[in-house]
Fold DUF2520 domain-containing protein.
Amino acid sequence: MHYSVSLIGSGNVAWHLSQALEKAGHQVREIYSRTPGHAERVAEKLYDAQVVTSLDFSESESDVFLLCVSDDAIGRVADELILPDEDAVVCHTSGTQPLDLLAGREHAGVFYPLQTFTSNRRLDLTTVPFCIESTDQHTEQVLVGIAQSISRTVYLVDAQERKMLHVGAVFACNFTNHLLALSRHLLAQEGLEFGLLKPLVRETFEKALEAADPATVQTGPAVREDYQVIHAHLDYLQRTPHWQALYKSITDSIVLLSRRG
């Protein structure tokens, strides 16, 4: 079944979801943003979406309203949002915020795509897990149907499970990327190119993703408990104490996990 959808927000998530929805056969009617230029950037990728700057959707013909806004804006936007009728489904796309932020709505839910989003970067949403939570069976049916039209992987996930997934995602995605950024800075200090590490990074990720448990393919001085190398690294990092502390903390974590088996 296909639905008419309005998106509230014009950031990275809205940019990707709007195109995926349209590709799946749904009609994206409206894109809301307080900054019209941002909404126009999203709308220009779509067939016939209209840019709107008011949260009064009382005249809208959409069935579903997706709040693709920052976590701290969900409550405010939900309070100001005027829906066309009580049958309309409204949901947010946050990995951390509770469904309760949409309290008072007849049909409310969470439509959380577990992925990192960057505008103008090609992304295959058919492989992205979608996590669904809802207040009622009708909303669940609508959101699951939309998610299944976009992705091959759809789960019913409650608030606690979603929060744990988000914590895991921060470790796997955000922290990992930050460590890569630190590696680039370390090499740059010595006039070395980050590209030298890229084959190593690719092999590390491939092994980790192929393994049932990434801990079983851990390599390096920490898992070997090679303290001669570790102390040499810590000595080198003395000029950047915060990086030295991070190195020691992660080393201790690897040793602890390795000893637990």
Observations:
- The first helix runs from residue 12 to 23.
- The chain has a mean pLDDT of 97.
- The radius of gyration is 22 Å.
